[in-house]
Amino acid sequence: MEVFSAYLANIDNAQHRARTEEVLSWVAAKFPHLMSKIAWNQPMFTDHGTFIIGFSVAKHHLAIAPEMVVINEFSDQIVEAGYSHSKQLVRIPWNGPVDFSLLEKMIEFNIVEKANCSTFWRK
Questions:
Q1: What are the tens digits of pLDDT across the range 23-70?
Q2: Which end is more exposed in the chain, N or C (fewer Cβ atoms within 10 Å of the end residue's Cβ)?
Q3: Can you give the residue ranges of the YdhG-like domain (predicted)?
C-alpha cells in the first residue's frame, strides 16, 4: 500500500480518502500476487504486466475501471448492486456500500481471462 500513499494523501475529502484506502487495501489483501502501481495518475493493479483493475476518485463516486469486457460480463450485476456504469468504468457512490463480492468476481474474471495476455491492455 505504500505505493499508493502519495495518491491517497492528495485526496482532500477525508471520507473519500478513507473509502479509497479501504478498497485499495482490500484488493491488496485479497489478491496479494497482484502488483500495485500508479499509472496515468491513478492506482491500479496488474498481473504479470497486464492491467487488471484501476481506480480513480471523482466528486460523486469512486470509479472502478476493469476494462470493457469485464463491465459487459457483469453489467446486470453492476446495476443490481445499485451502481451506474459506462463502457469503461463502474461508479460506486461515496454515500453507499461497496459490494466487495462483486468487486472480487470482476477481478477474478479479469485475472483468469488475461492469464495468457502478453500486453498491458486487451487487444
A1: 999 999 999 999 999 999 999 999 999 999 999 999 999 999 999 999
A2: C
A3: 16-111
| 95-113 pLDDT per residue, tens | 999 999 999 999 999 999 9
User: How many Cα atoms occupy the beta-carbon half-sphere of 101 within 13 Å?
Assistant: 3
For domain 2-111, the CATH class is alpha beta
- Residue 3 near residue 36 (C-beta atoms within 8 A): yes
Give the contacts of 16 (CB within 8 A, at least 6 positions apart).
Answer: 57, 62, 94
Q: Which of 73, 61, 56, 80 is nearest to 113 (CA)?
A: 73
Specify whether the CB–CB gap between 93 and 29 falls below 8 A: no
d(CA 98, CA 100): 6
The model's pTM is: 0.95
Predicted local confidence at residue 40, as pLDDT:
93
